[in-house]
Design brief:
The structure holds 2 protein chains of 2 kinds. By secondary structure, chain A is an alpha/beta fold. Helix content of chain A is 32%, strand content 24%. Classes of the chains: A alpha/beta, B mainly alpha. Chains A and B meet through helix 2 and helix 4 of A and helix 9, helix 13 and helix 14 of B.
Chain lengths: 254, 430
């Protein structure tokens, strides 16, 4: 079980984001402990992606605070998030299609030679190493990533998040484009990362994968937090009614 | 992808090309270039491929080719720059005014060794600043590059006019003119030495790439393939230099230079021009820009941003600053091109660089730069500039009427892009 007695790894406190007149995220508070997987659920447009993009630096919050290890941090852009060891796997994968796997993996953090030139050979070697661990079927190191299948592209996106020793990992529907075997691979990886003490925010549509993978689930509806529950204290019907009706099962609130 | 699956069933000739790891698109362009040369050579009864014409063709290409290398970066990042011809004119005007009016008024007289370097530095800095300003408008104020540089097209053309009152400014400084082409060449011996260095450098680069692959236990080409590549590059380099060296300086010019030194020219003395300094400058620009594109973070970010701007931003790349840098590079290259163009004419004229924006964009696009962004090569753009210039001067030699020349060039641009689209569909390299 996850130990939740100490300081949370991440705490997003009272976060609000508006686009024009619409409140996409309305005073939401969520937290995450080391070695924990917290699922973020809700309909399309419930605000879960917007909320999490404040943590990854893609959006700026209008109000609210983010604490990491109990300390207030200021995340203005993706560079700030990376500096806090926050890595994100976006739903769109955020890959540059015209570059190969190694260039994508190291994008923004290239390995360089002493002369300051990018060290492609070393980056490819490192990519081969980590791919051997994550997805040993991966062979297309020379091709631009647009030539890869959905699963292979996903492996590149995951490898990028894992390689740089993330402490906080954000996964936005990591299995949406994957077949059963690759979905299994992602599930195993999530469990592996948990054991290493990494905290994971998992945005998911599928209630069953949330029940399988997550320790807690935070449900959002219309920009507001419906509630956060311990997954093993509720049934999937409870979670579904939170998503659809916005009804909080009182007994199980964590 | 389709490429790899098709290769099993393809002919032996294609397999040789695959073993050598040639870029098939590059081969297509080289093929087109050779075809253009042969056709014009037949139509002109062999006058097209004389050393003299090859020499002229080369120095006429330099100015557009220099700018085309920068345009590759601009187009790869999904931007466009319509102002390069006007920016060239402004930089040329600034350099001309600096050397003919401003420096002499500060007490640095004609013929002073300071004039050329100071004028060139002033020009390059101006080009870089104006380019950076364009980049700032595009990147930080998010005005579309099309609009910023369309405005720039008008603004800088007329800034050049204002600076010079519309007058032709010249003659330019003698040292400055060395970079114009025929005004400054390396001579035969110097050219051969340069050629030898280039051959060794090419062979070393091929060998070094192979060693790096072996060190990381990656598959390598068969050793004979490497030697074929080295031999090919050596033949190309030395053939080019032999051609330029074969263009002899007219004997009257030689006799005059001997007279100037108070000597008498020996009977039967000849001397070739060799590599023009402007071509040397283009080679240097090409090498540096290729290094930037392939071996630096800046180049990696340029291509990543072109491939997927959102991914680049999310990877922590400052894409706004990147835009400023790309346009600043373009500005510096416009100044360099302005230097070569005005030095070749030996004066600054009010219409210098007119329509160059179209030639430069056409060169980059014919050279395989995709307007959708993310794809493009420096050598392709230079080859594209060479093909355009060959068409233009070939048609002039054949005696094609001026309107038809431009009609053909316009048609070729559209056709080249169509062929590129078909090629990409075939290879699945969309």
């Amino acid at each position: 079980m996850v130990d939740r007695t100490g300081t949370p790894l991440v705490e997003m406190r009272d976060v609000s984001v508006s686009f024009g007149g619409i409140k996409a995220v309305d005073h939401v508070t969520v937290d995450l402990f080391p070695g924990e997987v917290v699922g973020l659920l809700g309909h399309n447009g419930a605000g879960k992606s917007t909320l999490i993009k404040c943590l990854s630096g893609a959006y700026k919050m209008d109000a609210g605070e983010i604490y990491i290890d109990g300390e207030l941090v200021d995340i203005q852009n993706p560079r700030d998030a990376r500096a806090q060891n926050i890595e994100t796997i976006y739903q769109t994968l955020a890959l540059a299609d015209n570059l190969d796997a190694a260039s994508n993996l190291f994008l923004g953090r290239e390995l360089v030679t002493p002369l300051g030139f990018v060290n492609d050979a070393q980056m490819e070697a490192e990519t081969r190493k980590i791919m051997g661990r994550l997805n040993s079927n991966f062979k297309k190191f020379k091709d631009p990533v647009k030539a890869l299948s959905g699963g292979q592209r996903q492996s590149v996106a995951i490898a990028r998040a894992v390689y740089f020793n993330a402490r906080i990992l954000i996964m936005d529907e990591p299995t949406a484009a994957l077949g059963p075997q690759e979905t299994q691979m992602v599930a195993e990886l999530i469990n592996q990362l948990k054991e290493q003490g990494i905290g994971i925010f998992l945005i998911e549509h599928d209630v069953h994968s949330v029940m399988d993978l997550c320790d807690r689930a935070s449900v959002m509806k219309n920009g507001q937090l419906v509630g956060t529950v311990n997954v093993d204290e509720v049934t999937d019907e409870d979670i579904l009614s939170m998503i659809i009706l916005g009804k909080n099962p009182e007994a199980a609130t964590a | 992808m389709a490429d790899a699956s098709a290769s099993g069933a393809s002919t032996g000739r294609k397999n040789i090309l695959k073993t050598l790891e040639f870029d098939t698109r590059l081969l297509g362009m080289v093929g087109a270039f050779i075809l253009v040369c042969i056709v014009f050579n037949i139509l002109t009864d062999g006058r097209f491929l004389t050393p003299r014409n090859v020499f002229n063709l080369t120095i006429q290409t330099v100015s557009v080719a220099i700018m085309a290398t920068g345009m590759v970066f601009v187009i790869v990042t999904r931007q466009i720059d319509l102002s390069v011809g006007s920016l060239l004119a402004t930089c040329s005007a600034i350099m001309a005014m600096t050397q003919t009016q401003i420096l002499p008024s500060m007490g640095i007289d004609y013929g002073s060794g300071l004039i050329a370097p100071v004028a060139i530095i002033v020009g390059l800095v101006s080009g870089g600043l104006i380019g950076a300003f364009h980049g700032w408008l595009v990147g930080y104020l998010t005005i579309p590059a099309f609009i910023v540089t369309l405005g720039g097209l008008l603004v800088w053309r007329n800034v050049a006019w204002y600076l010079t009152n519309g007058q032709t400014i010249g003659p330019l400084d003698d040292n400055f003119q060395l970079l114009g082409g025929i005004g400054g060449t390396m001579g035969e011996t110097g050219s051969w030495i340069f050629g030898a260095i280039a051959v060794v450098a090419a062979a070393y680069a091929i060998w070094q790439a192979r060693r790096a692959r072996i060190a990381h236990e990656f598959p390598v080409k068969p050793i004979w393939a490497e030697f074929v590549l080295m031999a090919l590059s050596a033949a190309l380099i030395l053939g080019f230099i032999a051609t330029l060296n074969a263009y002899d300086v007219p004997s009257r010019v030689l006799a005059r230079s001997f007279e100037a030194r108070g000597e008498v020219m020996p009977e039967g003395f000849t001397q070739g021009y060799g590599i023009p300094f402007s071509v040397l400058l283009l080679i240097a620009v090409a090498v540096i820009m290729t290094l930037v594109a392939r071996r630096t973070r800046l180049g990696r970010y340029i291509f990543a941003t072109g491939g997927n701007p959102d991914a680049a931003e999310l990877s922590g790349i400052n894409t706004r600053m990147l835009t400023v840098k790309v346009f600043a590079i373009m500005g510096v290259l416009c100044a360099l091109a302005g230097l070569v163009a005005s030095a070749r004419l030996s004066f600054h004229s009010n219409d210098i660089g007119t329509l160059d924006e179209l030639r430069v964009i056409a060169a980059a696009v014919i050279g395989g730069t995709a307007l959708a962004g993310g794809i493009g090569t420096i050598y392709g753009a230079i080859l594209g500039a060479l093909i355009m210039q060959s068409l233009q001067s070939g048609m002039a030699m054949v005696g094609v009427d001026a309107p038809f020349q431009n009609i053909v060039v316009g048609g070729v641009l559209v056709l080249a892009v169509l062929i590129d689209i078909i090629y990409r569909k075939r290879t699945g390299d969309a």
